[in-house]
Amino acid sequence: MENKEGQYVKRTQKDYTLAFKLQVVSEVENGEIGLKAAQRKYGIQGDRTIRTWIEKHGQYDKSYKLRSMKKSPEQELMALRQQLKLLEKKNRRLEKELNQADKKALFFDMMIDIAEEEFEIPIRKKSLPEQLINSKKKKKISLSSLCRLVGINRQKYYRSKAKVRSNQGLAEKVVALVQEVRNKMPRLGGRKLYHLLQAELKALGVGRDKFFTILRANNLLVRPRKNYHTTTNSFHHYRKHKNKIADLKIYRPEQVWVSDITYIGTRENPMYLALVTDAYSKQIMGYDVSNSLSSIGSIRALKQAAKRRQYPNEELIHHSDRGIQYCSNDYQQLLKKLGISCSMTESYDPYANAVAERINGILKQEFIADFFHLGLDAMKKIVAQSIDIYNQARPHWSCQFMPPAEMHQQQELEYKSYKKKTTLAQDHLKPELLN
């Protein structure tokens, strides 16, 4: 790896998060990519690095694989005879195809002449350098002959080839920058990447459109995943509080906290993530991972958030859905003890708690969606790393592209919205604005 001054910097295992290691291991074991290809794609140093990750985190145990048995002379002779028959059959087929190919080439050459003469389509002149190179390799035709065939001179071919080489070199530099960011945030979207890398991209002469073109050409655009599990039980006898933030203008950190629980496991291994998030800065103040939907996890998340308050003398409202975890006596007593007012949604629409739902989606889609099959201890470690990266490094659109931790230090920045009159519960009209 090279730093911005072009100096070589050696990476250590601490430079790779557990989530990143597991993602690479999964791709290699599933046959999506080879070891060398994965090393080049992600800029991983050391020939043994990925093998070590597979041995430690992989799903397959090679010790159970049987050793190959040596064939007898009779079996080898039989195999050679079968191979000879296949080659003879293939030879007859190739001779037939060659005859057809000659006729087809003559026909297509005639069709190209007709297209160029009658429809004025310059097919030969629009041939790309890589197409000429492929033809040169496959047919063993000289470059001069190919250029004459398509009606261009060699100088134009070399200019086009130089342009392709220049574009590829530029793309390699951009992809290297992207990989450096995605080592910690594997599914960070294109807009956030462009914001984080804006200075480096400007130095390379790469604008927004060209940046997205390079991402698209190298399959680096992130597709959102859709997954929904119900975690709210509103049918209970506990008191349901009124919505105190429906028309509230949010203008400072620790004015409103939003809480929610999201499902992050599998049917065989259910796990739940409880979050407490600041509505103004989008900073995750407290969290808890458990394999239960009881109020214990939500209480632990709230206690953690209370310890991390930076403005303890300011009035604070806690907003959540009407789930039994938040309406329970233990949770309400803790809110009262901490001096925090309680607010709840008054509808069954999940977007009534839009900020909390959005933060859930970011963590699941960008950080932990590939690791739902892991055990509780491993998931706790991944969630801890992911939340730290999210708070400290991931830019937010609604925070004027600042990371949440930086936004949490602001006191005068306006709560960003594109609607003249809006409420927190109405933000589902444009959920992407919370991204």
TrEMBL record:
Gene3D superfamilies: Ribonuclease H-like superfamily/Ribonuclease H, Winged helix-like DNA-binding domain superfamily/Winged helix DNA-binding domain. The keyword DNA-binding does not apply. Pfam families: rve. GO terms for biological process: DNA integration. Keywords: Coiled coil. Residues 70-104 form a coiled coil. This is Transposase. It comes from Saprospira grandis DSM 2844. InterPro entries: Homeodomain-like_sf, Integrase_cat-core, RNaseH-like_sf, RNaseH_sf, Transpos_IS3, Transposase_IS3/IS150/IS904, WH-like_DNA-bd_sf. One of its GO terms (molecular function) is nucleic acid binding.
